[in-house]
Each structure stands twice: as C-alpha cells, then as structure tokens.
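Morning. Coffee machine broken again, so started the prediction first thing and wrote up yesterday's gels while waiting. Chain of 405 residues, entered below exactly as on the submission form.
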Amino acid sequence: MNPLKIAKWSAGIAFLVIALSIVGCTMLQPPSAVDFHATPTKGAAPLRVDFAPTATGQAVSYAWDFGDGTTGNGPSVSHIYRATGTYTVSLTVHLSDGRVAHATQDDLIDITGLIVTGAPHGPIVWLDRSAGTIFKGPRSGGTAVTVAQVPPYKSIRAIAVAHGKVYWTTYSDVERCDLDGGGHHIIYRPSPAKLAPIGDIAVDAIANKVYWAEDPIFNPENPLDTDPAEIWRADLDGSGAQVWANTSLWNYSDNTPSVMTTDAGNHRFYWTATRTTSSYPTPSVDATIHWADTSSNQAQKHTAFSSLPEIGGLAVDNSIPGGIPNLYWTNPGKNEIWYGYVGRFSKSRDLLMNTPHPEAIAVDAFGGKIYWSSGEGIYRANLQDGSDKELIYPGVHADALALSN
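Came back before lunch.
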C-alpha cells in the first residue's frame, strides 16, 4: 500500500478513536440539570414566596437571584416581594463534581398591587418587669409614655397586644387595659385551690383567644404530688378559660413553657421548653420550640426545632399573605437572632444576624422591620437581612416586646 495512504488512514483512525473517547466520556457524564418551583407566583405586596429547587446530581450550594435586587442562599428559601412589578428569578447550583447548573424563569413573579389595609401601624409596646411598668412609643423611636403601672407585689410577668388592648400576666392573674391606660380589668384569676404562678402570655387576634402558661404546683408535704405545667386558653374577655395543654403528656414535666407566640393566620401556637442538661463547670441548657394546631380543643404537640441554646424571645411574621411564615428567636448567650420556617413536610433555619445579647423580639412583616431589646435599649433593623440596624429607644429596659395593630 502507498505509504502516504497508510499515513492518512492511520491518522483517520487515531482521530476517530479520540473522538469516540470524548463522546464516550460525555455520554458517561450525567447531565447537569436544575429547576425550581415557586409558591405563590402572583399577589399583592408584601407577598412571601417560597422557592424549592430540583437538581440532578449532588448539590453543594444554591445561589438565588430574586429579580428585585436581592439574593439568597440555601436549598429551600422564602423571599418577600415588597414592590409591584414582574420579576425574573434565577438559580445557580454548584455540584459536588465541580459542574455548575443554571435555571432562569422569566417573569415568574407578578406583584399586582400593594396591600394598603390591615397593615399594622400602631405603637411598639414593651414591659419593664423590674419597674412593673408597660410603655408604648412610635415604631421609629421617639417619646415613650406609660400605659400601665402594676404594683410591685403583683410581680408582672409578660405582655401581649391585640385590638388596641394590652394583656399581661402577674404572679396570680391575667389582666388587660386599653393602650391609653383606661378600661383596666382582671380577666382571669385562679381559684384558691389552684394558685399556680402564671408565666408568659400570647394572643390570637384572629380567633380572639388569649393563652397563658401556669407553672407546676408543688405540694411541700408530698414532693411526689405535683401538678404539671399547663397552657390555658380563654376568650379575650377571659370567659371560657380552660386547660388547653397539659405538658406532662409530652414535655419535660418540670419545665413551664417559657416563651409563647401565635401564628394566627395558619392556626398555630408556638412555645418553647427548656431543660438544664448540665451544671458543671458551666450551666448548659437544651431548648425546644414546639407548636400545636389552635383549631383543636386540646393541643397535640409537634416539634419545630430542637437542641437549641437558650431562647430569650420568640416571634412570627404571620401578617404576610402567601407562603410559609417565618419564626424568629433570640439566643442571648451567643449574641444571635435566628429565623426558620416549618412547613407541612419540611423545615429550615438560618442565622439572621449577630448582635450583643438580644432578648425580647417582635416582627413587623408589613413594614419589613424586626425589633429586639438588649442591655442598651430597643433596636430595629431590616427584616430581610438584618441591615440598617438602629437604636430607637436607648437606655430603656424591655423584658418583652409587642406590636400593636
């Protein structure tokens, strides 16, 4: 055979082998595919939208672009759209084998208008437990005024606000008054046979219910004869008061629910339970956030988050329509504020911000603000990412916070 033809033939065979090798590697390499879905995709602002991805391959990171100038990270995320318009959403996924996959859905989110009615607009209300005083002031800061002064012997414990009234617990009863200080009433007082110290309080402004916690009752003559901690529920005027949850059925029997809040729009009641896990060389606690369906006459406990450090305050942004409301809680010992959501089949939590010794907490979902107290006073910041932090009431002491509608 002609040597020139042999050389050409050999070169062709070599090229074919290389090409087949490349094709074979490509065919063996799994495709990099990513997609996502959003719920809901249309509504009035502020609108919470929940995003969930699907990816072929093992994902190591998720980067979201919500189309309104903000971004996010994580597999399942929630985002609040606050302005009218149509938004294109993009997702970039980095896979464990080094590949990168992209997905974009054009004009996915349609914000048709603004909600102008029903948005909370009232003052921020706080409790100075040591002074026995309830205060209120504008949400942006300014002059604080006294709402109610409780005698020291009654030992005020906690506050909640609904329908222009502030509710509070003392060591022995549940009381309320108007936010201008008038209309004071004791709406519940245990009978002499059941003088259980009363703890935290929460209000469901939609179902018009008030909840409070009662500490365990110990019999000093018989330490084994102990009534467990309980959560009570009544109408806002105190009528129909009854035990809604007996914690001995499903919780640490020696610990009272310490912090409570309601997600009225989704018929959920949240509370925390804390136990001491060690005392040497330093005290250590194990906190859990539970929830129950408020449409039930007797609470059935579910666990939202467990194995948490100390919890100082708990709030939920339940006034945003659409999507899954977020919980927010403070960790004073670690200087952190966290948030998370609990869906039907999934849950997620993440760190919102670091700030020195946060205690009580309140959330204005419509205004996009989060409020918290510390030893320096009352702060607020953007709810979305904790930015634009400002001290709005310097020097005040706030053991509990609430926002009035």
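The chain has one helix and 34 strands. Going to sketch it on the whiteboard this afternoon.
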